[in-house]
Amino acid sequence: MLRRHNESLILSALYHDGPMSRVELGPLTGLGPAAISQLVSGLRRSRLVREAGQVASSGGRPRVLLEIDPDFGYLAGVDLTGDSVAWGLFDLTMRPVDMLRRKLRSGFTDVGGLARELTSGLRELLNSADVREPDLLGMGIGLPKTVTAPSLAEEWSPDRLKPLTGLEIPVFVGRGVNNQALAESRFGAGRGFERVIVVEIGAGADAALVVDGHVERICEWGHTTLDFGGRPCHCGSRGCVEAYVGVRGILQRYHESCGLQPPSRGKESAKLSALLRSTANSRPAAVLVRETVGYLGAALGNLISVFTPSKVILTGWAGLLLGKRFMTDIRKVVAGHTPQHVYRHTSVELGGAGPRAAMIGAAALTVEALLGRGADPRGEAE
Ligand SMILES: [Zn+2]
């Protein structure tokens, strides 16, 4: 057990901060030179770690650099949204290999049908990338927040899901926003920051907090009240954040302001893009978008006041669309709705892991398992 723990320390240091020499591993792991030497030999024999050239050292012999071997195995990350699914294949250091996107045929209540769809897409992706199934270390799945409600959470647990997929590899399941937070804190705009909030704006609104690399969902930020007695929300409450800044809420408000019928469901991404483009020559669109930026900034300000993060990262497909055009305005509103002594220590940034952040985060669930265990996640538990 102790050996595994120490291997976990070495692998984590090399994964997040490598390549580095055996000497540099000392202060990062708290292990002595003899232990490091012995553990590294074992990790090289199991092919998780490889040599990565040499660097000159002050006096003495050049030092050999060590790194995680990207070819040890592959990772699959699956991002399930309301009506589509995307599979991504990565090497162990999260370099993308190939991806595939499809419309979903099964609904979220048909867990068996959906599990079979996930497996068939994964096998198609492996085929096209010429990767063998036994070379896959695990599959991580990101679920939309509607599916992680308590009524469905048990059916979507990894233990229930794995037998339904028919796969021999470990299966991990995480909430979409948590996976985005994992991707941003490990590989994106949150890297190196101690306390980060990742805000996902899509059809709805959700947030997760990362403290010292540990991800926790902020339960129902999307359903905290932004406007007392305001718009009815699908959750049964009124005036929720989601009813103003989630894309369904934005489109509904726009249709109401123009005296139109409620918008039809679907194609929300295209509808939001069209709305944002029309602000230059449509006054109702310009007013609606200005109000939306205001609601979003005020809601982010509330999050910052409660959790005092060093960074807030705006992500999700709609968050990225809004943030790319209006980040300066969003920041101004946040500054005006957060106590100055709190705002001074934070910043609001656009996600750096890109629109595939949820897929990267899902694939990273297997990496977390490997680093936590200090060994191949497919092996028997010790
Ligand atoms: Zn609500």
From TrEMBL:
Alphabetically ordered keywords of this record: Kinase, Transferase
GO molecular function, one term: kinase activity
One Pfam family linked to the record: ROK
Similarity comment: Belongs to the ROK (NagC/XylR) family.
Protein name, UniProt field: Sugar kinase
Organism: Amycolatopsis thailandensis
The organism's taxonomic lineage, starting at the top: Bacteria, Bacillati, Actinomycetota, Actinomycetes, Pseudonocardiales
